[in-house]
Amino acid sequence: MSKPNFVEKLFQDVEVEWKPLGEVAELNRGKTITAKTKTAGDIPVISGGQIPAYYNAEFNRDGETITVAGSGAYAGFIMYWNEPIFVSDAFTVKPDLAILSTRYVFHFLLNNQTGIHNLQKGSGVPHVYPKDLAQLLIPIPPLPVQKEIVRILDTFTELTAELTAELTARKKQYEYYRDKLLTFEDGQVEWKTLGEVAESVASGRNKKRSTEGAFPVYGSTGQIGFTNEPLYTGNMLLVARVGAYAGQVNAVSGDFDVSDNTLVIRLTDAWDFRFAFHQLTHMNLNQFAIGAGQPLVTGGLLKNLRIALPPIQEQKRIANVLDKFDALTSSITEGLPREIELRQKQYEYYRDMLLSFPKEENNT
């Protein structure tokens, strides 16, 4: 790929030496934590996953640390830390700071993440071993060049982190106000069972659908096809009945049909349609699913749920507030995941470009 002018200028007259990682960095295994040595605390324990396995009171690494997951499905996964951590079923890469920047090595390893995953060995539980990663050749430009590469790449990662934090904050803000509006104490409102405020709760029946038709067919995850013979009309709530999405709630209106893996709730006039949607979504119906292998939410289970029922005008007011808040939050957050994805791709593009140094013939 052709390099932008600032990259060409950065690389101009730069001498790069290639060395096996094991010659310019220490690769040290972590230490197993046993039931006897485990103590409650807030120190992340790094093992074989993409996030801390749990937290401990002691640490065995501090400062800038690169960790490599040692075993399991994510063996070889690279992480960077700048805080006390306890390295367990993983190992660390500690570069010679006289010639290498830790962040530079981190970005370099991320650029080789796929190849590092491919170092996995073992037919049962896969492992990545320090001795294998130690053979990876790393380009070593002068430290000022490494520092500039890190500055550029960190700019992208920091922006991605800011966007991710914004997305998380907006979702938490919405959840906070939703919780406040939909939390009622005994004595504040009337309480009834769902079966008392729903006209009916029954499973859909549609097993035939096509890619064409005048009316939608809904399933557990939303619209799944079309039909010319709708069996339902009006405002109704749909609840996924079985599988990974069991308990997911959708609000639908108009003329439509419903698949046989989805429950249909017809509401009485005492239960506002939009209020009921927000209320059941807030209740997280998946927590009531039965069956460990194939979670199942039954109509009988739903009918027995206790439902807070404020006066209908208060239901409408709450629903109106939540609908507006939901629309505002969605308008802000819908673009953020796409923006985060684009920034990540931009980071990967420049990372590959900034770390693609030509190898001398005697280093290949």
Characteristics of this structure?
single chain; 364 residues; alpha+beta; four-stranded antiparallel beta sheet; 11 helices; elongated
How would you explain this protein's 3D organization?
- With 364 residues, the chain is of the alpha+beta class.
- Strand 12 and strand 13 form a beta hairpin.
Compact overview of the structure:
This protein is α+β, with helices and mostly antiparallel strands and 364 residues long. 36% of the residues lie in helices and 23% in strands. Strands 2-8-5-6 form a four-stranded antiparallel β-sheet. A four-stranded antiparallel β-sheet has the order 11-18-15-16. A four-stranded mixed β-sheet has the order 13-12-17-14, with no helix packed on it.
Oligomerization category of the chains in this entry = single chain
Poorly predicted spans = none
Q: Would you count the extended β strands for me? A: 19
Q: Order of helices and strands, N to C? A: HEHEEEEEEEHHHEHEHEEEEEEEEHHEHH
Strand content: 15-25%
Radius of gyration: 28 Å
Number of contiguous helices: 11
Give the CA-CA distance, first to last residue. 20 Å
Taking all residues together, what is the mean pLDDT? 89
Helix content: 25-40%
- Tell me the strand order in the biggest sheet: 2-8-5-6
Q: Major β-sheet, in short?
A: 4 strands, antiparallel
Describe the global form. elongated
Q: Supply the helix-strand structural class.
A: alpha+beta
